Amino acid sequence: MKIKVHFVSYCILALISFSASAQQHGLILNDTTSVPEVDETPLFNNYNYNYKSRLDSIEKTVPLTYNEYVQKYIDIYSGRKEMMGRMLGMSDYYFPIFERALKSLNIPEEIKYLPIIESSMNPHAVSRVGATGLWQFMFGTAREYGLNMDNFVDDRKDPIQASYAAAAYFRDAYEELGDWLLAIAAYNCGMGNVKRAMQKANSNDFWELRRFLPTETRNYVPAFIAAVYVMKCSDKHHISSQRPSYIKITDTIQVNRFISIPTLANALNMDEEELCTLNPSYKKKIVNGTESMPKRVIVPKVSLANFARIYEVLNPETETNMKMVLASNEERRPVRNVKSRPVFFYHKVKPGQNLGAIANKYHVEVQDLKVWNKLRSLTIVPGQKIKVYSTHNDDDTPSRLKS
Q1: Angle formed by the axes of helices 159-177 and 180-189, to 10°?
Q2: Main-chain dihedrals φ then ψ at residue 347, nearest 5 degrees
């Protein structure tokens, strides 16, 4: 049985963590360990007009206010030259993924800097309360935003999947709160806390209602602004990029059977751990692709001719008999068998729809829609037919695909 391979080249990048408290609407779980604590009322005896001017010059959509709180974090991050050098190096790998996901839902590009203060862009980061991955999603919120956790995979660690989920969270937060600084604050402490602070302050200005927010969130927004500044103005502070060894030009392949990552690494003649680094969401070093749900694998760029050789090596004669087990906070249960159904269907684009809306409707990823339909851009037109691989038996799935 031949393995179907869908191929697309791009430079990958992406990652790390969603604060636990941001996802517990109203519940305070201050857990962003990457944000240093500072004095509640820092002295402002070193007002720097250069910093103010630079922040003004790089400001786009998200307000980059300069004040004593932001100054304090600029001092901290600009002093951590080795750490910020690593962030600069990793940004080459991760920021293109973040940017693509954020752009799909019209989220400001500046949000891509948030994983720096969340978890220093570490896809395997796990907080003390279980927030996991590049954007630090809690289990329940990850499910709510379409991420999957089972015995083979944790999508919270997937740079691409989690980035689209984070973009969807920011879309919802901005629609609810109407301000990007408040949306960033909600990412840390939850929309319920932000709404209560707005009521107490009778204001929707972050700096006015800041005193009514949890302590960590008061510092979270200034830390974000400072991280944007230091990343954009690193040369002004003698910070040099430290590029990780695993950053490479990469390709994406889609596989429709179970594939061993160590076996694939051997076929690619590369280090096993390096391939695992490129694919951090697979728990058991197994890519659990199926006919109905092909899975993405990121590999270093190789010639197209080599893919046939690689997959001939990886195509076993016998079928695997693996069972899927859903991850749960309480228990792990086998999933019921799903009846046979077509691998894909076509969605007819309606006026006003974009790829992001179609991806959300069918619980898939924008990047996969582009791969399945060989799209070079995000542009689609009404009446166009978009191929969608079915991943769920739910009300959004055409009736002919339901069991």
Answers
A1: 120
A2: -105, 130
Amino acid at 386: I
Rounded to two decimals, the pTM is 0.70
Q: Where are the alpha helices (DSSP H) in 27-80?
A: 49-58, 68-79
CB of 278 closer than 8 Å to CB of 299:
yes
Q: How far apart are CA 38 and CA 35, in angstroms?
A: 9
Listed ranges 222-231, 246-255, 338-347, 371-380; the one with the highest mean pLDDT:
222-231
Domains belonging to the chain, first-starting first, are 6-12+249-334 (no CATH), 20-237 (1.10.530.10), 344-401 (3.10.350.10)
Evaluate whether 386 touches 346 at the Cβ level (below 8 Å). yes
> Pick from 89, 108, 90, 86: which is nearest to 99 by CA?
108
CA angle centred on 140, ends 340 and 32, rounded to 5°: 140
| Nearest partner of 302 among 293, 314, 290, 310, judged by Cα | 310
pLDDT (tens digit per residue) in 251-287: 888 888 888 899 888 888 888 999 999 999 999 999 9
What pLDDT does 174 receive? 95
**pLDDT tens per residue across span 344-356:** 778 888 888 888 8
